[in-house]
Structures are given as C-alpha cells and as structure tokens.
Predict the 3D structure of the following.
Amino acid sequence: VNRDLLVTNGGQKPLRISNVILAAAGTEFISITNMPVIPPEGFLVGPEDEFKISVAYMPSAAGEHSRLLTIASDDPDEPLKEVWLMGSGIASALELNPTTVEIGDVRVGAISDNNVEVKNTGEAEVTISALSWKTGGIFTQAHNPLPVTLYLNDSFSFTVSYLPTEENEGVDDVLVLMSDNTGGDPEVTVTARAVE
C-alpha cells in the first residue's frame, strides 16, 4: 500500500526544512519511497505551500505496525514535527476440507474421484496460483482454470482422481500454492491402494 503525506506550511513566513528522519526503531514494513532531495542548507517551503513524502506499507506479518517520522525545520514553535505512520496487516488463511483423502481400495482399471474444498477463512483475499504434487505420477487433479482469487468466505473445489493400471499403493501430497502467501502453502495428503 502506498500513501502520500502532504506537509503544508500553515504559517505566514517561509519554512526551512532541514531533515526528514524515519526512525530506525519500528517496523521494517514501513518505508519512504519518495521525497524531495534535501540539500545541506535545507529547502524552503513558502506560506501555504506544501511538499509530498511518499510512504509504502508492505506487511509480511499480521498485526499492528508503526514507525515514527520526524520532520526538522526552523519552525520556532515546533522545530521537530513527529508523525506516527501506522498500518494494520491482515492475513490470508485457507481451510482445506478434507485435509486427508483416504481413497482406500480401487480395482485396477477403475477410477475414483474425490472432491476437496478450499475456503478462504482469513481476513484478506488470497490468490491460488496452482496445484502441485510433491511426488507426482500417482494421482491427478482437475479444477477450474487458475489462478483464482478467493475473497473472504469464498471457496474453490478441485477433484483428486486415482486410476491405477497395476497393483500398487500410493501416497502423495498436493500443495495448494498461493501467489501471495508467506506462511507456507497448505497441503492435502492422498492415499490409495490398487487391487486386482
């Protein structure tokens, strides 16, 4: 998220800005992305004029975050103007149902289809970019075209299929890959056994 902070000289005389300081203490999720270049002697802001400081907030963790911005000037009443930059990070979360697909015994040449529902139970929208098997070659999955974006309480379903051609036992995990996820991709464990 990007926001612009407008600093206005509300006085009757020019104001000399000598520094803009973003405190080292605080969250690294808040940063200045653009502001005027401040020469050693500072720069002047005329009466009722303003300048812009662009701030970015890119949280990689949920919760409240803040960082102190200080503007130094020759204002006789408030030479150090403090502004708290604050944001609230919200997290995405997916709920899989079921988390384990136990297909059981399937005759060679037969097929077993099993549905898995993916629901967004978090506070932020989430984009599912792909489904990926850890091992591959045992099961297949079918689904609507990806990527798909799920808003709060939206759901998405895919089908896990098992079509054995010989007797075997299969175990694999299908990962639900989220393009904007930082906490790990949820997975579904699938087990099955082919019998004659």
